[in-house]
Amino acid sequence: MLPLIRRFLGVLEIGEDDLTPCADRIGTPVSLEPVTDPTVNAVAGPASGSAQEARFPSFPSLPGVYSLIFLYTEPLSTLTGAFAAWFFPGATWFHHQLVPSFDPVPVALNNVRDKMAIWQLANCYFLLSLCSWFVLRSARDYLRHDLPSQEHIVRSLLVPLAIVDVTHVIVTLMAMPQDVIRKPLEWNGTTHGNITFTMFLFLTRIAWFAGVGRTVHHTGGPKVKET
């Protein structure tokens, strides 16, 4: 009986060579550090930056408030004036609003010449809107690596606009009745647009010319190319 038991135990014995592979696997330390892929940050970083730049492209010559006013507000305001005279409320309403009055808006203009003059004025508003919209965006998008030239184009647009600001206010005040000029609290939206808002645009252009709140890249002299 005892020899049988010894023979049975001998079958169950595990040799030292059989335990070695298991011991090696058990003794191998397991790393719990998170696995990072360096390509993730390398791709995500520039992509997110490019997306932000695409939505908000930089415009060094018109930073911050200047861009908001000259690139968006002014073109939108002149475009609104053009469509108001052309379509709704229409030429009759626009003609009546040129001089503040408590009289009701007439049914129609007195003659065809008045309507033609109002529509042509609206076309000038439309022209100003398109010039500001396309010229400034072209300078921003195609001269982003040539800041002196970019600023020169912006200046070439703002100078004539500043001159027209002054002449527009002058001719408006010359034609406006004196009793209306003395009562600015009774001015309507069109009169404030022709005088108040135009002077605001003029003063903003003067601040831009003076370099207030921006970096000046062009001093007015010719651009010298080094050889």
Automatic annotation (TrEMBL):
Transmembrane found in the keyword field: yes
Top-rank lineage group of the source organism: Eukaryota
Transmembrane segments: 65-88, 117-136, 157-175, 195-213
Keywords from the UniProt entry: Membrane, Transmembrane, Transmembrane helix
UniProt xrefs under InterPro entries: DUF7704
Statement: the UniProt record of this protein carries the keyword Membrane: yes
Positions of the DUF7704 domain: 61-213
PANTHER family: CHROMOSOME 1, WHOLE GENOME SHOTGUN SEQUENCE, EXPERA DOMAIN-CONTAINING PROTEIN
Protein's UniProt name: DUF7704 domain-containing protein
Organism: Hydnum rufescens UP504
